[in-house]
Amino acid sequence: MTLRIGIIGFGARAALWRHAHRPGRGAEVVAVCDVSERGRADARAQLGPDVVLTDDLDQLLGLGLDAVLVTTPDHLHHGPTVAALEAGTAVFCEKPLGISIEECDDVLTTARRTGTRLYLGHNMRHMPVVTLMRDLVTAGRIGEVKAIWCRHFVGHGGDYYFKDWHADRSRSTSLLLQKGAHDLDVIHWLGGGYTARVQAMGDLAVYGAVTDRRDRSEERMADWFSLDNWPPASQRGLNPVVDVEDISMMTMRLDNGVLASYAQCHFTPDYWRNYTVIGTEGRIENLGDGPGARIAVWDRRHPSGLPEPDDVVTVPAAEGGHGGADPELVEEFLRFVASGGPTRTSPVAARMAVAAGVLATRSLRGDGRTLDVPPLPQDLVDYFERGQVEL
């Protein structure tokens, strides 16, 4: 059996098609839906003359596809995902699941009601640096986890997030949600729980003062990205609307008592994530997050000062984007479409990452007070934790 796959939204993350398109090996991308001429032209150039191109979602879903990859901008995840689920077409929804809690809950409710398979594109659950840290935690190497800190230095922030729709809160809610959804999901995964209470602060500290703006809706990131776009205040051609924060920090208490913090800055010169996980018998910390990075382990007492780690795990090289995570992500999705079963990514976890980001944004833009994150109904949690199977 060959799975017939469609792509909805042929932008940057649509590059995942390369891992889903394997003619003669069980899956083939046969159709693309994109409302822009640029998107359809890019799809034709990359996929060739045989791919069906359309700007009509109903036409795409009427082709009887086995699955679709929803790789639209964030504010357009909800509509196509719900429509595909209603049509009985399995869905890969790129993260975040939505830009509001209500959108996320509607998607999960629809997936359960229709029985259509739903998969979330949280590729960092396949990133070697994260999976190695997760292995150390679950093996009990540092005892019981009590705290997690994440610092995210987004050195490409001005190019990646302030020259297109990401900079507009009506399309992304905030970068604490849009960009942070990855890290919040990883914090939850490493901590073994979901955020129950959250507080945040932040600011539009640099890019709001850049007055050189223009509409880049027919451009792609490759058209403007350059390491020469430095320092941040000298950026040119930002999105006409820039109303998301470029520096944010949030603190969380997970539902199992673990304390966590997440700090994100979009005007640093370097671009990487640093996770520190502290347990009752030691701590781990990644130094770099790509191939060759080190995960340092301290699991005995040391004198004052900065000691050498007691152990070091090196992150291996792997083929494919995000340290080899992207091909593994798509491989898991195709297996899930074909035969079901457990998956490393989780619709429930995706919703809880969005919920944490939404409430953190509300705190940040309010008076910084601590807010409670609403839980999902237990029957929905049970359905997805059983692998999307009813009792």
TrEMBL record:
InterPro entries: Gfo/Idh/MocA-like_OxRdtase_N, Gfo/Idh/MocA_oxidoreduct, GFO_IDH_MocA-like_dom, NAD(P)-bd_dom_sf. One of its GO terms (molecular function) is nucleotide binding. SUPFAM superfamilies: Glyceraldehyde-3-phosphate dehydrogenase-like, C-terminal domain (SSF55347), NAD(P)-binding Rossmann-fold domains (SSF51735). It comes from the Bacteria. Pfam families: GFO_IDH_MocA, GFO_IDH_MocA_C3. Gene3D superfamilies: Dihydrodipicolinate Reductase, domain 2, NAD(P)-binding Rossmann-like Domain. Residues 3-122 form the Gfo/Idh/MocA-like oxidoreductase N-terminal domain. Residues 132-285 form the GFO/IDH/MocA-like oxidoreductase domain. PANTHER family: CONSERVED EXPRESSED OXIDOREDUCTASE (EUROFUNG), OXIDOREDUCTASE. This is Gfo/Idh/MocA family oxidoreductase. It comes from Auraticoccus cholistanensis. The lineage of its organism: Bacteria, Bacillati, Actinomycetota, Actinomycetes, Propionibacteriales.
